[in-house]
Amino acid sequence: MIKGKKVGLRALEKEDLKFLRDWRNKADFRRNFREVRELSLTDQEKWFESIQNTKHINFMFTIVDIETNEPIGAAGLLYINWINRSADFSFYIGKDDTYIDDKEVSIEATKLLIDYGFNSLNLNKIWMELYEFDTRKINFFTKNYNFKQDGLLRQNCFEDGKYWDSYIISLLKSDYSI
């Protein structure tokens, strides 16, 4: 386990899938996840198997409360490109409908995963795609961790009856100083 003071990152287990399914099926979470339908436990199990079969490029974790070992969220470095040393950053806090905030849990869990990516995996770039309406995550990562916009995918998402842009944002190892 990668331990912080209040939270830790541990390997995703099959027993965590019910939590992930329930969190990802929350309407205001799901709209941010490139998922337009309700997920079943079978869907989560198939996804879990695909993660297990691609462990060399997908590092997925359950965020847990250090004191209780209770699952509180999920985070990962996915689709790692070992030549370019880059990974797609996946992150959310499911407990208490948090999604993401500027409080200790989100701050510490994000720092643990970024540190792991840059210092243990020797990544050079951590990036993510966020829809323009996902202002909570955009603000969190740009203000707290200095992620920069790399690109814009115009009208890349259809939500609430209209098309929205996607932003590609990233953090380079050379820019990370937290």
TrEMBL record:
Transmembrane regions: none
Molecular function terms from GO: acyltransferase activity, transferring groups other than amino-acyl groups
Signal peptide range: none
InterPro entries: Acyl_CoA_acyltransferase, GNAT_dom
Domain N-acetyltransferase: 7-143
Domain of life: Bacteria
PANTHER family linked: GNAT-FAMILY ACETYLTRANSFERASE (PTHR43415:SF3), SPERMIDINE N(1)-ACETYLTRANSFERASE (PTHR43415)
Name of the featured protein: N-acetyltransferase domain-containing protein
